[in-house]
Design a protein that fits this description.
heterodimer, A: 494 residues, mainly alpha, 20 helices, globular, B: 222 residues
Chain lengths: 494, 222
């Protein structure tokens, strides 16, 4: 029942929000729905650990959760809850300023739980075809969220997102079909082979090798587009910068990682059929390409949220490259990094949302500096999150990046670690120099008056940071076990 | 299941798949918007035909459900929806592609040859008709070319739909009996919802920009 209820709760919330009249009801439904989701996510985490490696299954084998899915469920529910808490004040202020209509706010509260349902279905389904359909659900619900403000630029961003996303998903479906055909070809009988990931994995050595290769390439380009891997990332900065900040947080915090998850499932399958070399080298190449490409764009970026989007590109690249190195330490580090990044990036986008609402611009030149005087609370959260996302101690991203780099050196991939280190350094300089200017620099003469913030707003914004700090110093033993188990699943050594 | 019947079915599928490709090439050269939508509907009708042949000749009855869904969705509902959209936003009928007609024909010809070359190692696996897989790949590639060669939002949507037709063809051709029903239904509804979402966006773009020319969407850079 656990997996079913995890999926049903956000879906029911979305349906209820469709008919709910008062705004306060919409807000309460979203927050409580995601809070229950997080509780169930933790419960799933404990159940999976208690099972000693066997996956939790429901509806026959249709829904399936192993350590990797349980970890993703935790990330999805944590980020959704943080987003829902922040969105309450964000949209109240937008409504008061007349930036959105009440109808659009309702749209947000209906589409966000749908978006979350899609993501949960991606990680909980066992059927690769249904996984594809779920990724498409996330794309369709988020594209309307990107277009929420209905500005010409947000429509442009939404159009690019849906067009590139759809092409990517068509390619991914081709890849999915090839994977299915690889299972169908040896058994030429009438019986349909099962499309379940677990049964494909069990018969991996008998799969048609040529088709599996073709399948992985199609899926890599397809889901890679959705994950924002370079050079298929063209939609990513547009969509992240034009979406309302809560949506940007969801997109960057988890949606990119969901696409990576889908990619990883095919990577595991391909590795089991052909050996790890083929797919891991592709992941490594695309990952490093994204990391190297992100740097120059961050250094020359003029828009705060676009800069944050390129920083997401960097982190997604790092995760992919770390999985591509395929050493136990790097894969573990990649999973840890997913978690820390999911807690940090939303705070940056929340702060950017506050800044946009106060200054009505995100252009660094027009923002000027002196954020520490004008919006002290937001500036503090932005500064701390920027230090964290740049990979400085004491924050967890430092630990996970160090783990990945050390794993790279230890497993004889010294050049990979060097490339990672150099591009991380470039991004580090870019992000910190831009944000230091914004927070500490001299304010412009025409800067807006000092912001009056409510405690609730500050709390909602910085909650993920508190959680990040907590988990930076203390990775509980069960969590470590879960991540080790997930890393073993990715490396095919259960 | 007697061999001659499947032999006939296989040839019929080859014929229908080839016709799908012919309609794709007609789409590339056809300059009128409404005619484009009708060509897409006819192409989907051919896909319905292929699914029906597969269902009847090989006794794979769940493929028949796919055929019915394709008929209702891609032959009737989506073309109706798109035509209504075209009428409601009163756009001019003529399409002005970026690349002119003869050059587009040459490019699509080259893409088709390319797909035959790429699919050669796999043709032994496609046991339904001898050329379904290359046709599916050709539909994908020419569809992608069509997308980048069109200015109007609606024509880009149509191009995307033709790549999806190619995908369904690949699904039927490669796996003999199509995919599990739950997957087929999931894909079908996703496609329908995708077009509806695209329709909403087209409508909003038309309202904001007073145009459907997506080459005017060029504010956001790097």
């Amino acid at each position: 029942m656990l997996l079913t209820s995890l999926l049903l709760i956000p879906l029911v919330v979305a349906l209820l929000c469709l008919v709910a009249r008062q705004r306060i009801l919409l807000e309460a439904l979203n927050v409580s729905g995601f809070a229950i989701g997080l509780v169930l996510g933790v419960k799933l985490f404990r159940t999976v650990l208690a099972r000693e490696g066997a996956a939790v299954m429901e509806w026959g084998e249709f829904l399936r959760a192993d350590a990797l899915s349980a970890w993703m469920v935790l990330l999805i529910s944590a980020v959704s809850l943080a987003t829902a808490l922040y969105a309450v004040n964000y949209f109240r202020r937008d409504l008061a300023a007349g930036a959105v209509t009440a109808q659009r706010v309702r749209e947000f509260y209906v589409l966000t739980p749908l978006f979350a349902t899609g993501m949960l279905l991606v990680v909980l389904t066992n059927n690769l075809g249904v996984m594809w359909a779920a990724v498409e659900i996330t794309a369709l619900s988020s594209v309307l969220l990107v277009a929420l403000y209905n500005h010409p630029t947000s429509l442009e961003a939404a159009w690019k997102y849906i067009m590139l996303g759809s092409v990517g998903l068509v390619l991914a479906l081709f890849g999915t079909i090839f994977a299915y055909a690889a299972a169908a070809s040896p058994a030429a009988g009438m019986a349909l082979p099962s499309f379940n990931w677990s049964s494909l994995l069990a018969m991996a050595p008998q799969l048609d090798q040529k088709l599996v290769k073709l399948s992985f390439i199609f899926v890599l380009v397809g889901y890679g587009t959705k994950a924002g891997l370079a050079p298929m990332h063209a939609w990513l900065p547009d969509a992240h910068s034009e979406a309302p900040s809560p949506t940007s947080a969801m997109l960057s915090g988890v949606s990119l990682k969901i696409a990576i998850y889908a990619l990883l499932r095919f990577h595991i399958l391909t590795a089991a059929c052909l050996g790890a070399e083929f797919s891991r080298h592709l992941l490594l190449g695309f990952g490093l390409c994204s990391m190297v490409l992100a740097g120059p764009f961050i250094l020359t970026q003029k828009n705060l949220k676009r800069m944050l989007a390129y920083s997401s590109l960097e982190h997604v690249g790092l995760i992919c490259a770390a999985v591509g190195v395929n050493a136990p330490l790097t894969v573990f580090g990649a999973l840890l990094h997913m978690g820390y990044h999911a807690l940090t990036k939303p705070v940056l986008f929340f702060a950017a949302g506050n800044i946009h609402q106060h200054y009505h611009t995100l252009n660094f030149r027009r923002l000027g500096g002196g954020l520490a005087h004008i919006m002290p609370a937001t500036a503090l959260a932005l500064g701390v999150a920027a230090v964290a996302v740049s990979g400085l101690p004491p924050f967890g991203l430092f630990v996970s990046e160090l783990t990945i780099l050390a794993g790279g050196f230890a497993s004889g991939h010294a050049w990979v670690s060097v490339v990672m280190l150099v591009s991380l350094l470039v991004v580090f300089c870019g992000v910190l120099s831009k944000l230091a200017g914004l927070v500490l620099g001299p304010p412009r003469a025409d800067a807006p008056p000092r912001e009056l913030v409510t405690a609730g707003r500050v709390a909602a914004m910085s909650l993920p940071l508190v959680v990040l700090l907590l988990f930076s110093f203390w990775v509980p033993n069960p969590l470590r076990q879960l991540l080790e188990r997930a890393a073993n699943i990715i490396r095919g050594t259960p | 299941m007697n061999p001659p019947a499947t032999e006939v079915a296989s040839r019929l599928i080859t014929l229908l798949a080839t016709l799908m490709l012919v309609f794709q090439l007609l789409l590339v050269v056809q300059q009128m918007l409404i005619a484009n939508i009708r060509l897409f509907a006819l192409q989907s009708l051919l896909l319905t035909g292929i699914a029906t042949v597969v269902a009847c000749a090989y006794g794979a009855w769940h493929v028949l459900i796919v055929a019915v869904l394709t008929l209702l969705g891609k032959v009737i509902f989506l073309p109706w929806l798109l035509q209504r959209l075209v009428r409601r936003i009163k756009i001019e009928q003529e399409i002005h592609p970026f690349v002119n007609m003869p050059a587009s024909m040459l490019i699509c010809g080259a893409l088709t040859v390319l797909s035959y070359v790429v699919a050669r190692p796999f043709t032994s696996l496609a046991r339904l008709g001898s050329n379904t897989l290359p046709v599916a790949l050709a539909l994908l590639l020419t569809g992608l070319f069509l997308m980048s060669n069109r200015r109007k939002a609606i024509t880009q949507v149509l191009a995307l739909l033709t790549t999806e037709n190619g995908m369904m063809l690949a699904a039927i051709a490669l796996t003999t009996y199509g995919m599990p029903l739950v997957v087929e239904i999931g894909i079908f509804f996703d496609v329908v919802v995708a077009v509806m979402v695209l329709g909403i966006l087209v409508f909003r773009i038309r309202e904001s920009f007073d145009s459907m020319d997506v080459s005017k969407l060029n504010e956001l850079k790097w």
